[in-house]
Amino acid sequence: MSSLARAWWIAEVVSMTEMLDNRYDVVVIGGGAAGLNGALMLARARRSVLVLDSGTPRNAPADGVHGLLGVEGTPPRVLLERGQSEVRQYGGRVVNTVVDAVRRGADGVFEVPLADGRVVGARRLLVTSGVIDELPDIPGLRERWGRDVVHCPYCHGWEVRDLAIGVLANGPLAVHQALLFRQWSQNIVFFARGAVLTDEQAEQFAARGIDVVSDEVAAVEVIDDRLAGVRLADGTVVERAVLAVGSRTVARADFLTGLGLRAEEHPSGVGDYIRTDEAGRTDVPGVWAAGNLTNPVAQVGAAAVAGAVAAAQINLDLLHEDTQIAVTGYRARLAVQR
């Protein structure tokens, strides 16, 4: 996007903020793939929709979105800007702001305070605020995240194929991650970092030619802004061009505690999440959730689908409510006429 186009986009976001209504059918908290796709579905269903987004997408460091038909390789920011434009095309609104709390008003409507002090109401909430990736506290690691420090072979495997890849053990899926990356490269080193392999896992590594380094990792070596290797505690440097590490995901959900909704440990052990049913319903009536907030390992396509599914269910829920209100009013009118 050119600097002129970006300036226009920012100005549009600001003007949208000035024109906010007091109440919407649905407020979507989180403007990633799940939130925008959900908002698009709802806006096309002629629902009034407001998307609130902090502007800090999880995949911002990545060069492109992969494994999603039709947009392969598209930079994440470009994809989000397209999504925002599509939501606005059908009357939805998108505002950059941080949501720190949500409460339910006396009339049952959700109240969402904004950073500028205003409060917007919502009949229903779709929460797609995502997760934060926590990485091991290894000097130099975070700075390379999304570049030559990666986590998902389906997202990055093709781009790092046949390179010297190191896998840093970090959580219950580390061995699985090493075996997966072996599909993209024959040169894999597993940095155990205290993890103990079972006999079966050791045999699998040996059969697949995956070397294991048991020494403690001290730092990531970078030369000319490129990953050069992993420095061990004794000073030895193991040359690597790429590092794979599974993060621990932390749900962006603290603002929901006022509704009695809290994140819990994901069954896989990869981090925490908000539990929902298959339709995206949470334990709090009127609140749906989707995307990485409910499935930390979901790629962009899966997150977008989850947002669409939740949106359809929200619209159905509102439809039932609208119909009941109409029936109540109809009966009241009939009673007066008699």
Question: What does it look like?
Answer:
The protein is α/β, with parallel strands linked by helices and 338 residues long. The protein is built from seven helices and 19 strands. The protein has helices spanning 3-18, 33-44, 76-89, 153-156, 174-181, 199-208, 300-337, and strands spanning 23-29, 49-53, 93-96, 103-104, 110-113, 119-127, 131-134, 149-150, 165-168, 188-191, 211-213, 217-223, 226-232, 237-239, 242-245, 248-251, 264-265, 272-273, 287-289. Helix 2 runs parallel beside helix 3 and helix 2 (33-44) packs parallel to helix 7 (300-337). The termini are far apart. The model is unreliable at 1-18 (pLDDT under 50).
Strand fraction = 15-25%
| Strand count | 19
Span between termini: 64 Å
Low-confidence stretches: 1-18
Summary keywords:
338 residues; alpha/beta; five-stranded parallel β-sheet; disordered N terminus
What's this model, at a glance?
By secondary structure, this protein is an alpha/beta fold.
Q: Mind sketching the topology for me?
A:
Elements: H1 3-18, E1 23-29, H2 33-44, E2 49-53, H3 76-89, E3 93-96, E4 103-104, E5 110-113, E6 119-127, E7 131-134, E8 149-150, H4 153-156, E9 165-168, H5 174-181, E10 188-191, H6 199-208, E11 211-213, E12 217-223, E13 226-232, E14 237-239, E15 242-245, E16 248-251, E17 264-265, E18 272-273, E19 287-289, H7 300-337
Parallel strand pairs: 1-2, 1-6, 2-3, 6-19, 8-15, 9-10, 9-15, 10-11
Antiparallel strand pairs: 4-5, 5-6, 7-16, 12-13, 13-14, 17-18
